[in-house]
From TrEMBL:
Source organism, top-level taxon: Bacteria
Cited InterPro entries: OMP/PagP_B-barrel (IPR011250)
Protein name: Transferrin-binding protein B C-lobe/N-lobe beta barrel domain-containing protein
């Protein structure tokens, strides 16, 4: 099930003043990535889930877009956007993916780039319905003195008939996010298209 609400930290980031940032170029790139993410997510939300008979039984497809990661609270949190790629193998009903090149803001409106990659592991298609996708997203990101850990159950749907992409997010009760070794609230949303 895709949770379409924007986490409070992401709402905070969308209203940040670019003049408050030390890295204006990075902040402008973040704004462009945010706009791409919001547009891609809206496009996928407007599409119906892929018809059951519209899910191929053979072949492979790679979908690219963005991942939005928010961890922590309004008083101590980080909001990041990064690149995402998810590959679906319809022959064996599996999927895999990576998310990287993250950058974003902390609650002090400081912009930073983050090193590291998040990996989509054990991804499957059709766990419940033929157009469902799920898997585990794991990894560590580091930047601006912060260490963010992700071990999150991710689920979503193939979107459109024919398929135009995948929209998915993490499930709070089955996910663990850490910020500097403290367990914190978090969410990760992926929006990828062909």
């Amino acid at each position: 099930m895709v949770h379409v609400c924007i986490p409070p930290a992401l709402i905070l980031a969308t209203g940040l003043s670019l003049s408050a940032c030390g890295d204006i170029k990075g902040a402008l790139e973040f704004a462009d990535t945010r706009d791409d993410f919001l547009s891609r997510r809206a496009t996928l939300e407007d599409r119906s889930n892929t018809a059951y008979l519209g899910v191929p039984e053979t072949g492979e497809a790679t979908y690219r877009g963005e991942a939005s990661l928010a961890v922590g609270t309004k008083s101590d949190g980080v909001v990041l956007l990064g690149d995402a790629a998810i590959t679906v193998d319809f022959d064996d009903s599996t999927l895999s993916g990576e998310m990287g090149n993250f950058s974003g803001f902390d609650t002090n409106e400081d912009f930073s780039k983050y090193a590291g990659v998040l990996v989509l592991e054990d991804g499957v298609i059709g766990a419940v319905n033929p157009n469902d996708v799920e898997g585990q997203i794991v990894g560590v990101l580091t930047g601006d003195g912060n260490v963010i850990g992700v071990d999150a159950f991710w689920e979503g749907h193939l979107k459109g008939t024919p398929i135009i992409g995948i929209l998915g997010d993490t499930t709070p009760g089955s996910s663990t996010f850490t910020l500097n070794d403290d367990v914190v609230p978090g969410t990760l949303v992926t929006a990828v298209t062909d």
